Amino acid sequence: GWxxxxxxxxxxxxxxxxNYSLNILxxxxxxxxxxxxxxxxxEKVKSFIEENEFSPPEEVELxxxxxxxxxxxxxxxxRVDKREEADLIQVDFEYQVNGNKIITTGDYPLVISxxxxxxxxxxxxxxxxxxxxxxxxxxxxxxxxxxxxxxxxKVNPKISYLSLNEVxxxxxxxxxxxx
Length: 179
Hints:
Helices cover about 15% and strands about 30% of the residues. The chain has three helices and nine strands, in the order βββαββββββαα. Strands 1, 2, 3, 4, 5, 6, 7, 8 and 9 form a nine-stranded antiparallel β-sheet that branches.
């Protein structure tokens, strides 16, 4: 990694990570001023991602997961509701394919997390690389909620997990009755 008085940068090629932070502990003046609005930050951050080639492969979408104001208690940040209480804005993104979230490996569920200060100054940037060799599954069963499963059971009454329990030695014919 690289460290200066004002900032630090670490790149881990093996894990596909880039982590940048501005030293706001030693330089609180970096985050003085008025914060931009949520909508302004989201568009500016998306442009930054595209211009610096952090965009995912074209079949993968980068979706905004969270955008919220934060109060600086460096090295910790607390989420706050009002812009007037905040020092910074955090924007988190995740990868999706056909509206389905891509689960990342390791300890990092988000793929890009950026904390912005006044004048769109990047205070923290965490990027977790998604391989360009990703191949979306052609056939898969989408996850269902508990309510969707219960509805399916009510709509198709032939599905019964209890009826085989009543049979001592089930045969293939017993299983066919369930379908």
